[in-house]
Automatic annotation (TrEMBL):
Record's protein name: MarR family protein
GO molecular function terms noted in the UniProt entry: DNA-binding transcription factor activity
Domain HTH marR-type as annotated: residue spans: 10-57
Top-rank lineage group of the source organism: Bacteria
Record lineage: Bacteria, Bacillati, Actinomycetota, Actinomycetes, Micrococcales
Listed InterPro entries: HTH_MarR-typ, WH-like_DNA-bd_sf, WH_DNA-bd_sf
């Protein structure tokens, strides 16, 4: 099997927090198959660019995905994060 995938780790982290906004960082990292440190870096990227808000609730984080944000690549910029989540996150 090839060692590449169609989606980046950023996309996978975004999908994980969309599926479970109260997920533990370790669970997000484990689901995506990356280290906790890599997950933190990706979440910081997503937050810095306005794709995700992180709110502290006690000792845990709660995440809010901004579905109206455009995808970053120029060939996909007419589509939104919400469309990506709707297509791939298997949400009810």
């Amino acid at each position: 099997m090839a060692d590449w995938t169609f989606l980046t780790h950023h996309a996978h982290v975004l999908l994980e927090v969309a599926k479970n906004p109260d997920a533990l960082l370790s669970d997000i990292a484990s689901s995506v198959g990356i280290s906790a440190r890599a997950a933190v870096t990706i979440l910081n990227d997503l937050e810095e660019l306005g794709y995700v808000d992180r709110e502290r609730r006690g000792r845990r984080n709660h995440y809010l995905v901004h579905g109206n944000q455009p995808l970053r690549h120029p060939t996909n910029a007419t589509h939104t994060v919400g469309e990506l989540v709707a297509a791939l996150a298997d949400l009810p």
